[in-house]
Amino acid sequence: MLPEFSRRQLLTEPPQAGVAEVLEATPAECAALAKRFGIEALRHFGARFTRKPYPGGGLLLEGRLKAEAVQLCVVSLEPVTEHLDKPFTLVVLPPEAAPSEDPDGPDEIEADATGHFDLGEALAEELSLSLNPYPRAAGAHLPEGLQEGDEEAPRNSFAKLALLRGGKA
């Protein structure tokens, strides 16, 4: 089964100066990605990047990932819109190349035996890692007694739940 935003590419060597490219998700792909990521909506998702040769027969992809995602606030459950505009760097490795062991190096995509790789899936993974894991609506705050660092906060989870339901700790 293909990923929701599949863009299979062939590992070919671009000119030394690089080639500019754009990938955009369709509305149906955005809806499928939103479902996969468990968010309310993905209104836009795309990337602009440059494809350049990389030592050893690989590719260097550098550009910007842009998206507009709607998630629910972790406090109020109100919709929160997040605009992402994030730089990314990916290296596409040729078949049978050894991945780098540098934890600070760019993310790597391994091409299969035929020289193909799925750039769309790699960008979707970048998006999923960029989404705010705890979105908060403006002005949203936890009820009294549940604030982090509150000295009088209940000591166990059941007491905290009772406070959320309006009971006493």
Structure description:
It is a single chain. This protein is an alpha+beta fold and 169 residues long. It has three helices and seven strands, in the order ββαβββββαα. The protein has helices at residues 27-37, 119-130, 157-164, and strands at 8-10, 19-24, 41-54, 58-72, 79-93, 107-110, 116-118. The strands form two sheets. The protein has a five-stranded mixed beta sheet with strand order 2-3-4-5-6, with helices on one face. The radius of gyration is 21 Å and the shape is elongated.
Question: Can you count the helices?
Answer: 3
Record the strand order, biggest sheet.
2-3-4-5-6
Helical proportion, percent range: 10-25%
Q: Report the biggest beta sheet as strand number plus sense, adding barrel if it closes.
A: 5 strands, mixed
Mean pLDDT figure: 88
**Number of E-type strands:** 7
Quickly give the structural class: alpha+beta
The separation of the N and C termini measures 50 Å
The secondary-structure element order is: EEHEEEEEHH
Radius of gyration (Å): 21 Å
Low-confidence stretches: none
